[in-house]
Amino acid sequence: MIWLIGNKGMLGTELALLFEEKKIPYIGTDRELDITDPAALNAFAVQQAITWIVNCAAYTAVDKAEDDVDRCRLLNSAGPANIAAAARYIKARLIHISTDYVFNGTGNRPYREDDPACPIGVYGLTKREGEIKVFEHNDASYIIRSAWLYGKHGNNFVHTMLKLMEERDRVSVVNDQRGSPTWAGDLARTVLALITAADSKAVPYGIYHYTNEGNITWFDFAQEIYAQGRRLGRLTKDCAVTPCTSDEFPAKVKRPAYSVLDKTKIKTALGLEIPAWDLSLGKFLR
Ligand SMILES: NC(=O)c1ccc[n+]([C@@H]2O[C@H](COP(=O)([O-])OP(=O)(O)OC[C@H]3O[C@@H](n4cnc5c(N)ncnc54)[C@H](OP(=O)(O)O)[C@@H]3O)[C@@H](O)[C@H]2O)c1
After folding, report:
1. Does the pLDDT of residue 252 top 90, yes or no?
2. Measured between alpha carbons, how far is 3 from 7 in angstroms, rounded to an integer?
3. CA distances from 175 to 21, 220, 221, 223 (A)
4. Contact (CB, 8 A) for 130 and 102
5. What is the distance between the alpha carbons of residues 50 and 80, in angstroms, rounded to a whole number?
6. How confident is the model at residue 185, as a pLDDT?
7. Which end of the chain has fewer CB atoms within 10 angstroms, the N or the C?
């Protein structure tokens, strides 16, 4: 049995749909079982025959986190520690999700798993603390770092762009941040591929990077959303998409300028063929 924590979030929803489609036994929890309450987690864990825990719960509001440090740390650092401890208590293996925001984005080649983490905001800092705590509490853990996620559920860049492009004649999008858009559906399939592989052979515990293939700027992404949205009838009117710089969009926290992740490790471990970002966008929009 898989325990899916954060089953109502963007990634959690995709995982729940995938488990249901594949008829994989799982039990999902979200806010009603607070990850900051270790006793509640342990009490729940012992009632089920759980062999895997997948944690998708987190504090993900990157800007808000700057003024809400304690809550963000509780969810992104103490929460994963509690979950890892619960996993160890019931001898379950854990897959925890982390982020490209553990890097500062000043690199000029894709970040590898063993590159030093150096987060620049509260969200990235607390996610990094969470990674460390996961391994402190349970060696039998995998962490998958991903980036630029979008999916059916929740606020994300694709939904925002489709809405703005339908409402406005012009949208300006930053062209100085580079990364890899990643469909949460693809990440969900990768989580399942990891569980399946690790159930049948030794897959070393540790950190793995996963995004869709290719890297672009948010402006490039918006242009493709517009082109595909028009082609597929998701957008019903013309809209100009223009590039701008991050300085034109003042935000509480600086975003990494370069957050491309090296995926060699996960591709080798699981024999994965990773879909290109634009093909996955097309599947998502269809
Ligand atoms: N989104 C991205 O672009 C992105 C990129 C890279 C990595 N990630 C990582 O991927 C993972 C999944 O992200 P996501 O975008 O799917 O997150 P999400 O949509 O924000 O989902 C997180 C879920 O956790 C729930 N939650 C909040 N507090 C909780 C608590 N105390 N106990 C139990 N559940 C609680 C949330 O409920 P409420 O909605 O009611 O708060 C929500 O359903 C996270 O670890 C995130 O850091 C995300």
Report:
1. no
2. 9
3. 38, 7, 10, 11
4. no
5. 17
6. 98
7. C
Please report, for residues 92, 158, 275, the alpha-carbon distance to residue 219 in angstroms, rounded to integers and kept in the order given. 42, 12, 20
Tokens standing for residue 44: 């729940």
Catalytic residues: 123
Longest dimension (CA), the chain: 56
User: What angle is formed at CA 23 by the lines to CA 80 and CA 49, rounded to 5 degrees?
Assistant: 50
* Single-letter code of the amino acid located at 31: R
H/E stretch holding 36 reads none
Contact between residue 130 and residue 76 where contact means Cβ atoms under 8 Å apart: yes
Question: Which residue's structure tokens are 């000043």?
Answer: 106
From CA 190, how far away is CA 273, in angstroms rounded?
10
Rounded distance, CA 149 to CA 174, Å? 17
Q: In this structure, which residue's CA is closest to atom 14 in ligand 1?
A: 10
pLDDT interval class at 28 (50, 70, 90): very high
Res 250 pLDDT > 80: no
Domains of the chain: 2-156+180-213+255-276 (3.40.50.720)
Pocket of ligand 1 (CB under 6 A): 6, 8-12, 30-31, 34-36, 56-58, 60, 75, 97, 99, 127, 146-149, 154
- To test ligand 1's pocket by mutation, which of 5, 56, 71, 129 has the most ligand atoms within 8 angstroms of CB? 56
Answer whether 253's CB lies under 8 Å from 66's CB: yes
- Distance (Å, whole) CA 41 – CA 36: 9
Question: What's the gap in Å between 186 CA and the centre of ligand 1?
Answer: 17
Residue 52's CB is within 10 A of a number of other CB atoms, namely: 21
Buried b (16+ CB within 10 A) or exposed e, 32-45: ebbbeebebbeebb
C-alpha distance across the termini of the chain, in Å? 32
